[in-house]
């Protein structure tokens, strides 16, 4: 099948229309509590709207996207958009980076240059990768499926097809969120093609632990302190991923996300801030964050800026993907955190702000060829986006002996 060059170009008329809609927003009344227990706060959304309409610059991220070679190729009737950034280093090895929801390919943009040109970013020539970064079907500039069946297993097959089409028969994998599930399934289905896998949301939870934590059962007997902590985190996660239950049952009911940019922003920001980076008010309202490079919390080294968050929200808006990107929850047949049968060499990074911190004992059971395991001191669910250097270091160190 053909691979066609692609350029991200949003017409100025669409930028103008976005601003018009933001300024015409009908806001709801204020929440009746002084925290985020009822959802993202009105004051946060009002400040976001002001910044989005008057200061945010989409052209910066558009230029960044276009600084890499972009392509489209049809796989199983759906156009797949992807970045293919090749290294100039002779012994570079290919790696596929898989994003999550609502991350999009933007969550991995910060690690591309250090991966393809490590000598310019504190690494060695032997650390070089050729980077393939696809957009999931229904996300970003990929096409929107018109039939059912695009679950993570089918997407894994599509990624294998893409890598084969690019001439890569052996390659590395890295995934976050849905990307972590997808690369696990890819490695399980096509182990002969995978040199090694890295995940920061590993599927390692034993079936009995998964069943108990999902139903709110008491802590099973015989767990270590580390395993008990993970169990408690899982139990809390299953209670709080309210958005996932809705997306898994009625994604089409979210049609209003296509028509209201502030509605879309509130919906996407709520799980990001409630689960991983609370509270967003420190980013959009604190006087110290009026600087253009303001970051979301000093406790996270690199952090996330207002622009980081709006880059992803704005991509969702321009590509009208609020509903289509959500359907993966409806399509999914695989438990999020359980083992997928991966036998290839595997590296695991555990971040303290993740939904749960995978114990090494469970990781060794789920990944019998575990070659790297590290518990990070800082960071959360989107480390390539928030703490890119830690993911770069993990990919270099975790895969170094496998090249």
From TrEMBL:
Tell me where on the tree of life, at the top rank, the source sits.
Bacteria
The active site is formed by: 177, 329, 381
Signal peptide boundaries: none
Keywords linked to the UniProt accession: Aromatic hydrocarbons catabolism, Hydrolase
Domain Epoxide hydrolase N-terminal, by residue range, is 3-107
Whether Magnesium counts among this entry's keywords is no
User: What processes in GO biological process is this protein linked to?
Assistant: epoxide metabolic process
Q: Which GO terms describe its molecular function?
A: epoxide hydrolase activity
- Asked whether the keyword rRNA-binding is assigned, the reply is no
Question: PANTHER family, per this entry?
Answer: EPOXIDE HYDROLASE, EPOXIDE HYDROLASE 1-RELATED
- Report the family membership: Belongs to the peptidase S33 family.
Q: What is this protein called?
A: Multidrug MFS transporter
Q: What is the source species?
A: Flavihumibacter solisilvae
């Amino acid at each position: 099948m053909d691979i066609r060059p692609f350029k991200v170009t949003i017409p100025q008329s669409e930028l103008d229309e976005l601003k018009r809609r933001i300024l015409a927003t009908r806001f709801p009344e204020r929440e009746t509590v002084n925290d985020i227990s009822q959802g993202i706060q009105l004051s946060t959304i009002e400040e976001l709207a002001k910044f989005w309409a008057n200061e945010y610059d989409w052209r910066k991220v558009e230029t960044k996207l276009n600084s890499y070679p972009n392509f489209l190729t049809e796989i199983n009737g759906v156009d797949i958009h992807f970045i293919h950034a090749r290294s100039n280093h002779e012994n570079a090895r290919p790696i596929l980076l898989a994003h999550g929801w609502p991350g999009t390919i933007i969550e991995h943009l910060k690690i591309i240059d250090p991966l393809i040109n490590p000598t310019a970013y504190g690494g060695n020539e032997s650390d070089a990768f050729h980077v393939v970064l696809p957009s999931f079907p229904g996300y970003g500039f990929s096409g929107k499926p018109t039939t059912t069946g695009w679950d993570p297993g089918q997407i894994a097959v599509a990624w294998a097809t893409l890598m084969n089409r690019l001439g890569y028969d052996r390659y590395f994998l890295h995934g976050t969120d849905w990307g972590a599930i997808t690369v696990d399934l890819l490695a399980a289905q096509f182990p002969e093609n995978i040199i090694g896998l890295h995940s920061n949301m590993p599927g390692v939870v034993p079936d009995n632990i998964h069943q108990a934590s999902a139903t709110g059962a008491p802590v099973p007997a015989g767990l270590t302190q580390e395993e008990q902590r993970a169990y408690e985190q899982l139990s809390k996660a299953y209670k709080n991923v309210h958005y996932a239950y809705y997306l898994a049952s009625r994604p089409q009911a979210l049609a209003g996300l296509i028509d209201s940019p502030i509605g879309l922003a509130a919906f996407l920001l709520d799980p990001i801030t409630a689960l991983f980076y609370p509270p967003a008010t420190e980013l959009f309202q604190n006087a110290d964050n009026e600087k253009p490079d303001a970051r979301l919390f000093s406790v996270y080294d690199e952090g996330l800026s207002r622009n980081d968050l709006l880059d992803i929200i704005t991509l969702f808006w321009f590509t009208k993907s609020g509903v289509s990107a959500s359907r993966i929850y409806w399509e999914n047949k695989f438990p999020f955190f359980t083992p997928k049968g991966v036998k290839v060499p595997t590296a695991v990074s555990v971040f303290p702000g993740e939904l749960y911190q995978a114990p090494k004992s469970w990781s060794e059971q789920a990944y019998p060829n575990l070659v790297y395991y590290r518990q990070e001191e800082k960071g959360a669910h989107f480390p390539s986006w928030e703490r890119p250097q830690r993911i770069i270091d993990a990919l270099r160190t975790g895969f170094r002996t496998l090249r």
